[in-house]
Amino acid sequence: MSGPMTFSRRRFLRQAGGLSALSLAGSLDLLGLSSAAAQTGGDYKALVCLFLFGGNDSNSLVIPYSGYASYDAVRPLATGVNVAASLLTPIAPANLPGQTFALHPAFTATNGNPTLTSLFQSGRLAVVANAGTLVEPLTRAEYRAGTKRRPQQLFSHSDQQQQYQTSISESSVLTAPTGWGGRIGDELALSMNGPLATPIGMSFSGAQTFLNGSSVRGLSLPTAGNFGYTGDSPAPNAMQIARGNARAELILATDSNAMISSAQSSMMSALNASQRINPILNGTLPTTISTPFAGLNSGLANQLRAVARLVANRATLGQRRQIFFVSIGGFDTHTGQGQFQPPTPAIQGLASLYQQIGQAMSAFYQSTVNLGVQNEVTTFMLSDFNRTFRPNGVGTDHAWGGNYLVMGGAVQGNRFYGQYPNLALGGPDDADSLGRWIPTTAIDQYGATLARWFGVPDADLVQVFPNVGRFATSNLGFMG
What we know:
By secondary structure, this protein is α/β, with parallel strands linked by helices. The chain has helices at 4-15, 58-61, 68-74, 116-121, 140-145, 157-166, 180-192, 238-252, 258-282, 287-290, 299-312, 314-317, 350-371, 443-454, 461-464, and strands at 45-52, 62-64, 101-103, 125-132, 201-203, 219-220, 321-328, 377-383, 402-407, 416-418, 441-442. It is globular, with a radius of gyration of 23 Å.
């Protein structure tokens, strides 16, 4: 402690009004800001993590077309979750000759934007098949015999959400969890973004472990409105101005206590970020973004629209690398999952969620095209887990390995990566007899492929994904 003034300043920083949109997560780190000069060069890349909270039934996201009989044998019309074959548009992965599949037909688009199906066919979208949390490679026989390690707390929402975001499937009480997006930020924030850049990681879905590293913290942002101290106003009155001046004086005052000094630096960094981000989030939307998003007002559309704003203003923010987190919930479909049948398929349950995703993702991709950065922005999906292939009569239950979409101009699309599961109940990919697919691709491999494209050197991948060396490859090949 450095005397009474230190206590007063600390109490002021704690009580004078918190940065309501910041994910400080109890840390006094500098929110990813660097005092080192950024490397020269103008290359830019962004990762956008789309998390489907609740455990998406990815057996409905990707449906076998040429092998529809194997799907229909387990999910016929009577199960209440069937998607009719007559509604499917086949896609033919270039690396799976003779096999055709389909994305759920509720993945529609508006405003003339490309659908997810058309993006797959044009090579801008790929499927990562049967990926999930793993400690090490695992077969059905090994899983059932217990001869190899398995992720802890399988089929638990909160635990699996954490494991997908951290890529760590064995918990440790010795260290606070960090996310693999945050650990990518640890590797690149100092070298790629400028000394006054805003934090590399930004969430429009509240505070998320995914964006927290050892030295960086994610910034939690609203999709619109004021980002800053609670009670501040874009047009402050005299009292608010006086309060702001006093606050700035206290934050800038020197102090010999390292903890207080770190808190002051953190708060100043956040204030600097808010001064640059607020005009962007509340400014006039350019037609390059407003046109693709016209009429779309779902929560996910609002989040991705805000991401597009920040991508468009990356130079103002001093960023050559950006990592975003957006999400949509409602995927815990034990009941009411709904089937999709002609003549007029009902947009409800899972179909309603997929419609929101399809429209928002397609609008976001078209925005990146309009901004000229489609080759520099990659959007990828995560979720708690997949759901059982065998329905429970009104929906589906918690499962494991699932199928995920990756979208962007740098994606080597029109292909499946990993191994699409054998759909036999009790078959070689089933953990039991309900269609709980044991992942054949680890989340570590999925993430490492993205991290390498983003700029993490091969030698440093183990710093981001400590277990990646246990698997056959750290590069699935879906990024150019």
